[in-house]
Amino acid sequence: MVRTSRHFDAFRSSVPDLTGKTMAITGTTTGTGAVAADIVAGAGARTILLNRPSDRATRAAAQLRETHPDAEIVDIECD
C-alpha cells in the first residue's frame, strides 16, 4: 500500500507498539494520511479513518483491512 523512501524502514521500525491506543487520521485515501494509517494499524492501534464519502475512501479502507487483517479499522464518513 505504501511506497517507501530510503528513510521509511527506519521510521517504521521506530514506531512503538500501539496496542490499546486509538488513532484518528484524516485524509487516508492517499499521501501522508494513507501512510499514517498504514503505520499505526500495523503497530496495533485501533485506527479510525476520517474521510469524505467516496469510492477512494472505501477502497483505501478495504486495502488497509487486507494489509492488516488483525487490526481494528473504523471507517467514518465525514465532510
Q: What would you say this structure looks like, in words?
A:
Strand 2, helix 3 (55-67) and strand 3 (73-77) form a beta-alpha-beta unit. The chain has helices at residues 8-14, 31-42, 55-67; strands at residues 22-26, 46-51, 73-77. The chain contains 3 helices and 3 strands; from the N terminus they run αβαβαβ. With 79 residues, the protein is of the alpha/beta class. It has a 3-stranded parallel sheet, covered by helices on one side. The mean pLDDT is 92. Helices cover 41% and strands 20% of the residues.
- State Rg: 12 Å
Distance between the termini: 24 Å
Unreliable segments (pLDDT under 50, ≥5 consecutive)?
A: none
Helical coverage, percent range:
40-55%
User: What is the element string, with H for helices and E for strands?
Assistant: HEHEHE
Structural class: alpha/beta
Question: Could you tell me the strand content as a percent range?
Answer: 15-25%
Query: Could you tell me the number of beta strands?
Result: 3
Tell me about the biggest sheet? 3 strands, parallel
Averaged pLDDT, please?
92
> How many distinct helices?
3
Set out the fold topology.
Layout: H1 8-14, E1 22-26, H2 31-42, E2 46-51, H3 55-67, E3 73-77
Parallel strand pairs: 1-2, 2-3
Quick structural gist:
The chain is of the alpha/beta class.
Which features does this protein show?
alpha/beta; three-stranded parallel beta sheet; 3 strands; 20% strand
